[in-house]
Give the backbone structure.
Amino acid sequence: MSISTTIKSIQDIMRKDVGVDGDAQRISQIVWMIFLKIFDDREMENELTDDDYISPIPEKFRWRNWAANPEGITGEELLEFVNNELFKTLKNLSVKTDSDRRALLVRGLFEDAYNYMKSGTLIRQVVNKINAIDFNRSQDRHLFNDIYEKILKDLQSAGNSGEYYTPRAVTQFMVDMTHPQLGEKILDPACGTGGFLVCPIENIRNKYVKNVNDELLLQQSITGVEKKALPHLLCTTNMMLHQIDVPLQIRHDNTLSRPLRNYGPKDRVDVIVTNPPFGGMEEDGIETNFPKALRTRETADLFLVLIMHLLKDGGRAAIVLPDGTLFGEGVKTRIKEKLLAECDLHTIVRLPNGVFSPYTGIKTNLLFFTKGKPTKVTWFYEHPYPPGVKNYNKTKPMRIEEFKPQKRWWPKRKENEFAWKVPVKAIKAGNYNLDIKNPNTIKPENGDPDKLLAQYKKLLNEIGQTRDALKKELCDALGGDGA
């Protein structure tokens, strides 16, 4: 049974519970349970490598001791234990020193967690389903993204706008083209469930990590911030699955809520790869954290300003942005002017429709830029559908193989049917409109109206002559038969 199917069966069990109201609560319920299961799995690994390992969770409340046994406590006894003992303990874990990082992690995550279920019998059924998933198997670990995709679809149906699952092919391409190195500080300021952090972790670990010190350096270099409690818990769990031991560097916060001037040199990073929420508005007052000329409540625009500010000189960024940012005017124009003046916006990849379906039909773009020198030329690459595909869907998602032509083109760029370049002078002359269409697309020639009318009359005359000739031949044939 696939993980996605398992999650669906868990949700079906929860629908029987009178305490769980809607998809958002069902998802929240699943996530805190999965976190405790994965935390316990990681602790088992730590116990094998460290004889002196001590869990921050009291023995009675560790997953293995109340949940792992399918014949364990159930019914009213389990409900009483979860509500009045487990949650109270985890929300109030003792953190005596800075070394109690695991206790701090668990306590912080459970501050916003709740048990919505009112049937201990159904809780036991859910727990047993979760125990059937072996998160230590590499296959299940990689398929864990299916949970995120399923959850995000349900979040959308629950009315949570702005939550988009970024296709893995897009994530991989953006990370590959920014090429994070071991020792560079990597940030996703709107990290969601962590896909843009998992990808560089795997890339760097496979290419560069050779010893324990390298691994420690990698773990210290990954940073993420997520505004919402549920995606933050998912991201933290995802980091643990990918061997980030105590992912306290995944903060539950809103990066936009801090005044821009308060971000100093210690906050600067080498690489930012992100898909910030777009199509939404920030709460009143957030825009006052930004310079007056750049103030807006549109989330994607504010993130673009923040990213420019957080990059070190020489730092690289890849960001997903909607078409509206490219052609928008007013504040959007001033933001783009700042971008082209302070950064080298060297590449814009224009994605086709349907990439983010079914979450949104908004057309999107991938912007790649380097901070520290102004833009001279911006290259555009129009990503085509693969042969035989007219749109993306669940059975035909975007695949990383589709980006092979871009990867071959990237280091030695030449114009072709999909790629073209625009000097910054032309962009400025167009009032910083970056919604520039492909000039190499072959367009049908409409022609001169007088010539088209003459051709039409000629064609009608030829059709008339052909009709008269056929009529004469038919009459002659019929006359001959009657002789």
About this structure: The chain has a mean pLDDT of 87. The chain has three domains: 3-137, 161-429, 447-483. The radius of gyration is 29 Å.
